[in-house]
Structure formats: C-alpha cells, structure tokens
From TrEMBL:
One of its GO terms (molecular function) is chromate transmembrane transporter activity. The keyword tRNA processing does not apply. The keyword Membrane applies. Pfam families: Chromate_transp. It is a multi-pass membrane protein. One of its GO terms (cellular component) is plasma membrane. This is Chromate transporter. It comes from Paenibacillus albilobatus. Keywords: Cell membrane, Membrane, Transmembrane, Transmembrane helix. It is found in: Cell membrane. Belongs to the chromate ion transporter (CHR) (TC 2.A.51) family. The chain crosses the membrane at residues 93-116, 128-148, 160-192, 212-232, 244-262, 305-330, 342-362, 368-386.
Amino acid sequence: MAGQTEAKSHAETQAKGRRKGTILEILGASTKLGLTSFGGPIAHLGYFRDEYVNRRKWLDEKSYADLVALCQFLPGPASSQVGIAIGMMRGGLLGGIASWIGFTLPSALALMLFAYLLHHVDVSSAGWLHGLMIAAVAVVAQAVWGMARSLAPDRTRGTIALLTAIITLLWPSAYGQLILIAAAGLFGRWFLTASAVPETPRLGISIRRRTAVAAWVVFVGLLLGLPLLRSVSPSQGLALFDTFFRVGSLVFGGGHVVLPMLQAEVVPAGWVTEAQFLAGYGAAQAIPGPLFTFSAYLGTVMNGWAGAGIALIAMFLPSFLLVTGALPFWDAIRRRPDFQSVFKGINAAVVGILLAALYNPVWTKAVYTPYDFCLAIAALGLLMLWKLPPWAVVLFCAAGGSLLSALT
C-alpha cells in the first residue's frame, strides 16, 4: 500500500513537472531565488532543490540530480546553468532566459550600485553577512540529507558518496571532481545493475537537436573568432566582450575559481586596480545570487552601465549556449537503459561532492564558535522540522548573526 502511494505521488510529480509554465511564473520563481540564495554555488543548489523539487515539484529528485551532474561537466557557473536548464524545461528557450534574468539580475544590480557608491566600504566583518553564511550551512545540510536518502539509499551507493566526499576534501580540484564523477559512472555501469533503476522520466526539453547543434556552432565560433576580431579591431567593447566570454567559457569549478582568472585578465591590463578588484570581491560576498555577476561590477568600474551590460552578457553567454547545446542530447542519453546504471553511480558521487562542500567551503567559512553552531542548528531545525521557507531562515540567520556580533 505504501509502495502504491509512493508510486502515485511520483507519477503526480512527473505530470506536474511536464506541464509548461508561463514566462512570468518562471521569472517570479527565479527572482525569488536571486534575492534569497546566499552562500555560494553549492548553497544555491540546495535552494534550487527546495524550491523546484520540493515546493513547486517542477521536476523529480533524480532528474534534478542528473541536471546537476551535467552542469558539473560543463565549464562555467554550475548553479546558474542548473537554473537555466530548469527554466528551459519549464518554458523553452525563453524560459531559460527568464530563469537566468531572475536569478542573476538582483545581484548584478547590487554589484553595479556597489561599484558606483560602496566599493570603498569593507563589509567582510559585518555580523549579518556572517549570519548569511551560517544560513548556507543549514540549507546545504538539508540538501545533502534529502539527496542522500533518494540517490544513495543503499550500502554500495552510500559508500560511493562517502568515498567521493573524502577524496574531494583531500584532493580539492575542479578537475578532480570531474574525474570522480566519471569514475563513479564507470563503476555504476559495471557494478550497479540497470534492473534496479526506476523508469527515468523525460526532462521535457522542447529544444530541437538542430537548435542544440547551432548553439554549439555559435559557441565555438565566438570562442575562436572573437580573439581574431579583437586583433584587427581596437574597440574597447569588443576587447571587454572577448575577455569575459573567454573566461566564462574556460573556467571549471565556477564560483571562486573564476576570480584568479578574472584578476589575471583585468588588473595587469590596467582596467581596474588591485584595490578596486578586492573591494568588489568583498561586496560580492554580501549579496545573494551567482558570483559570476562580479563581472557586472568590473564592467561598471571599467565603462559604467554599458561596460556592466557587456561584461555580464559575455560572462554568462557561454553557459547559455552550452546548456542549450547539451540538454537535448543529455535527455536522450540519460533515459537509455545501459546508461541508467551509469547515472546511479554519478548521482551518488554528486551527493558525495555536496557532502564535501558542506564542510569546505560552507562550514569552514561560517562556523567558528559554539554560538555559530547553535545558530546553524536552529536554522536547520526551522528548515527541516518547522518547514519554514529558505528566505525566512536567511532573515533569521542574518538577524542572529548581527546579534552575535553585537554580543561578542
């Protein structure tokens, strides 16, 4: 009886997820996340899971994990790519654009304002900012627990998750994560039987394969062609677009990994000073949303609002093209019976990577004292026991962080 109820619930989730949504619905959901998703890319995946899988039921747990696995393989900001992919599932190409705008625009506008007004203010020691980092601990812990129950429920997959977490912590490399995911997939192919895998639902991708191929052609054409155009044209706008497009195309690991690449591009060229760069980095830690919107800050420093627009679009355009090019093929591959066991291993590895990230960087950057730990426990209880929405827990932790800062 319980199995029938669970199967019915799973079927209802799939049916609801396959229904297309309006652009305004997608924009509203992603804007909510863009305003409340503090804590970096790993925390973003926790916020996304809570909003899109648990609350809105736009997709099931396994489909979500498969999207996360895909975006771990692609260069660029993984959390933004997951958001774009979910938007495309819900509303096609326009849905992907709406999802990107909603998740990205709040932090981009905030950083542009920082560039104009607040880039000289040090926010790194603000109590409320520390509280936001503690909120990320609770959000990621909830995501690890929920995904582990669904994607690593047995001894074998649980062991894959634990080994992946251990190796990830001892070998902190974006390329190391790619190798671990690939190794887990190979293990799953040979040792995790496909017969034990439930039927894999379609992602509901409406993008045609010829559109996907065109996206790949545009991506490669821009990556190779922009440096050539830049060499024959003195345009500052073209130089700016080429720089940020190239960084967005070639960085693996996302988030903080992009910062040294950007610094190497913009500081030696004299586009921004070292002090301006570091001030903007400090401001970026104080806002929700993707860290890649740091490009909007740099563009504003270089050339005002126009520079911000060029840098921001160039930085995220590779992700949009890569997701558009990959999704139709990925959806077909993931539903093949011989690949289902591969994804059992991959999804267990994704749980392990998330578990490792719960410790570093999420825990190590937030929990320093018993008071911090108590606030994290309270936030986790509000999420998992009292079922408060993440934005309310974020506000709770911001207030708690400010209080702790005042008392200590």
